[in-house]
Design a protein that fits this description.
Blueprint: E1 3-7, E2 10-12, E3 18-25, E4 33-39, E5 46-51, E6 57-59, E7 67-72, E8 77-82, E9 91-99, E10 104-107, E11 111-115
Parallel strand pairs: 2-11
Antiparallel strand pairs: 1-3, 3-8, 4-5, 4-9, 5-6, 7-8, 9-10, 9-11
Length: 117
């Protein structure tokens, strides 16, 4: 059974920081591309950042220079370091695990990030 469990969300003031974690189980973590997506109220889910099995990273333009995605294959965990938070970063952040060659695509349950003064 595949599980992706996010943690680390919360309420933070503008300019603050958070570190999101996603612990994976039930998959061969090291071969999966891992990603973070977010969904703001009333908006579609959007890509935030991805990291491949080879640790190549990709970021949405809106988060470049502020967010950093990383992975620890020994811990089956992917992280998202979020700095210089803005109110528009508010939303539910979802962890994703993808291995397209096998048609595998899994989602976590999400963790809420709220940026407000």
């Amino acid at each position: 059974q595949v599980q992706l469990v996010e943690s680390g969300g919360g309420l933070v003031q503008p300019g603050g920081s958070l570190r999101l974690s996603c612990a994976a189980s039930g998959i061969n973590f090291r071969i999966f591309t891992m990603g973070w997506y977010r969904q703001a109220p009333g908006k579609q889910r959007e890509l935030v950042a991805t990291i491949t099995s080879g640790s190549s990273t990709n970021y949405a333009d809106s988060v470049k220079g502020r967010f950093t995605i990383s992975r620890d294959n020994a811990q089956n965990t992917v992280y998202l370091q979020i700095n210089s938070l803005k109110p528009e970063d508010t939303g539910v952040y979802y962890c994703n695990a993808a291995f397209p060659l096998r048609g595998a695509n899994y989602w976590g349950q999400g963790t809420q990030v709220t940026v407000s003064s």
